[in-house]
Design a protein that fits this description.
mainly alpha, binds fe (iii) ion, about 60% helix
Length: about 190
């Protein structure tokens, strides 16, 4: 199966589920994040990263109700491991870092907290809260940390009820182009996302 068909199948199976505590589905959230990336004229790898940043949530069973979500499932690691087997690090690394990027922005941008949705404030507690300064320095040493911050921004924006966007099929040619460029090697873990 090619990667596009694989992704389509995953979204068809689980994408209609609610995006934790928000008024959009998982599929709508993904499409909105990709749409905002395109609007920002992001490079193709980053558009695909935005589209697939939460694929870890679709690859595993997670509770429907956010109040039942008592453990951080580390969806960013599950998703980036999956992506690293199909794409280059330009796609998988911003995904791995998109949760740390939230913790990073809380420490480095005083206005960021006010921009978070109530559900995102709840998950923040499970994700470890704002970064300590030594974590900020470590995060900034990541090759793709700026890209991760951009994906985070589109992730935060992608919660608009009823927003019209291009559909998943509109991205499949791009997905295939990028997947073919990536070496088909087993994923390498780059260490825990802290
Ligand atoms: Fe998200």
């Amino acid at each position: 199966m090619n990667v596009g068909a694989e992704i389509l199948g995953i979204f068809q199976q689980r994408g209609s589920g609610a995006y934790f505590g928000e008024r959009v589905s998982m599929s709508e959230h993904a499409l909105q994040a990709a749409h905002f990336a395109q609007t920002a004229a992001a490079p193709p790898e980053l558009v695909v990263a935005a589209l697939l940043h939460d694929i870890g949530h679709l690859l595993e069973d997670v509770p429907d109700d956010i109040v039942d979500w008592v453990v951080d499932a580390h969806h960013e690691q599950i998703g980036s491991d999956w992506l690293a087997r199909r794409f280059g690090p330009e796609v998988s690394e911003p995904v791995r870092l998109h949760v740390p990027a939230k913790r990073y922005l809380l420490t480095t941008n005083p206005e960021y907290f006010a921009s978070l949705s109530p559900a995102s404030v709840i998950t923040l507690k499970l994700q470890g809260g704002p970064m300590a300064m030594h974590e900020v320095a470590k995060f900034e040493s990541e090759r793709f940390y700026r890209e991760a911050v951009r994906v985070r921004h589109w992730d935060d924006l992608g919660k608009v009820q009823g927003l019209q966007t291009p559909g998943l099929s509109d991205y499949l040619a791009l997905v295939e182009t990028l997947a073919k460029q990536a070496p088909q090697l087993p994923a390498k873990r780059s260490g825990p996302a802290t």
